[in-house]
Specification:
Elements (H helix, E strand, L loop, with lengths): L1 H8 L3 H9 L3 H8 L5 H13 L3 E6 L7 H20 L6 E6 L10 H18 L4 E4 L6 H14 L4 E5 L5 H8 L5 E5 L14 H17 L3 E5 L3 H13 L8 E5 L4 H9 L4 E7 L4 H10 L1 H14 L1
Parallel strand pairs: 1-2, 1-8, 2-3, 3-4, 4-5, 5-6, 6-7, 7-8
Helix pairs in contact: 1-12, 5-6, 6-7, 8-9, 9-10, 12-13
């Protein structure tokens, strides 16, 4: 029951001010967010790369209200691409973007988002890396996949995220399980109505496995975004069934969550990528992480008690 409450809280400006001003918040957020600056993000990239982990970087920002904010998001990613190129880290770190941060929700937002994200994808290609389009709530899926198709026409390595809790996702997986396509499969972290998404966790998990089978059987490159030990084991079994070798798929997990498992997978020869968010607009991301897993909320609660 707490999950929907926390997801609603992620949209609350009042709660945002309370949480952001609480003395305990910063040390706890630091578990999930690699600082507020590009320098902090690059420090995390270097540290993870030294431990044979790969990275995808997310400059936090969404729900922007005007075109100038969208341009600032674009510029932040251009600076990130430049930093990755300067340090030769393009082969180890890619970029994840939310089109809402690029103006997708503004009037004419589809074109605004495309025009802002295109130079980022071009800069990523020049830096020897890639971009993955994060998926947001169900109202944005068609627009995001249309932007993906346009980007892939010029930069076929551009990837996308699909969320197993949406009813439509099995069909989307089938459409994207093609040569050159990169798909990160996740369960989903937004509050969605029963008309478009499974509400029962067991049903979400079953849908995830069906989608995973489609991706692993296809010709694309699956990226398994999950911390669930059962899904990790199922992925390994499916890789064996479909003859996929390490490097023909990858695991992805969030920064600060199940770090021992991240290292275990990397040590076992798997490609393991860590999703590293950074930036000042961390509140919405942080609340969704609390909503996803009771263990995250318990961690936050223990910190509040111990520091209170």
């Amino acid at each position: 029951m707490l999950g929907p409450v926390l997801l609603a809280a992620a949209r609350s400006d009042g709660l945002r001010r309370v949480v952001a001003s609480a003395p305990v918040t910063r040390p706890v957020v630091d578990r999930f967010v690699a600082g507020e600056t590009l320098d902090g993000a690059m420090t995390a990239v270097r540290s993870l790369a030294d431990r044979r982990l790969e990275v995808t970087l997310d400059h936090l920002g969404e729900d922007i209200s005007d075109a100038s904010e969208a341009r600032r998001a674009r510029d932040a990613y251009l600076a990130l691409a430049e930093a990755l190129a300067a340090e030769g880290l393009g082969a180890r770190a890619e970029m994840s973007v939310k089109l809402s941060a690029f103006g997708q929700a503004l009037p004419g937002g589809h074109d605004i988002a495309y025009n802002n994200v295109l130079p980022v994808v071009e800069a990523a290609t020049a830096a020897g890396t890639t971009v993955t389009l994060d998926m947001e709530d169900h109202t944005t899926v068609d627009s995001t996949l249309a932007v993906l198709a346009d980007l892939r026409a010029r930069h076929p390595q551009t990837g996308a995220v699909l969320q197993s809790y949406l009813y439509r996702t099995e069909d989307d997986c089938a459409a994207l399980a093609v040569a050159g396509s990169r798909v990160r499969l996740v369960k989903g972290a937004y509050r969605e109505p029963a008309e478009v998404a499974y509400q029962d966790k067991h049903q979400v998990d079953k849908a995830y496995v069906r989608c995973l089978k489609t991706l692993m059987a296809g010709d694309g490159y699956p990226m398994i975004g999950s911390h669930d030990p059962r899904l990790v084991a199922i992925t390994e079994a499916l890789a064996a069934r479909f003859g996929r070798k390490p490097g023909e798929y990858e695991f992805q997990m969030l920064y600060g969550i199940r770090e021992a498992e991240q290292h275990r997978l990397a040590d076992a020869g798997h490609r393991m990528r860590v999703y590293v968010p950074y930036g000042t607009d961390w509140y919405g991301y942080f609340m969704r992480r609390l909503a996803e897993r009771p263990a995250n909320l318990a961690f936050f609660a223990r910190s509040l008690v111990s520091r209170g």
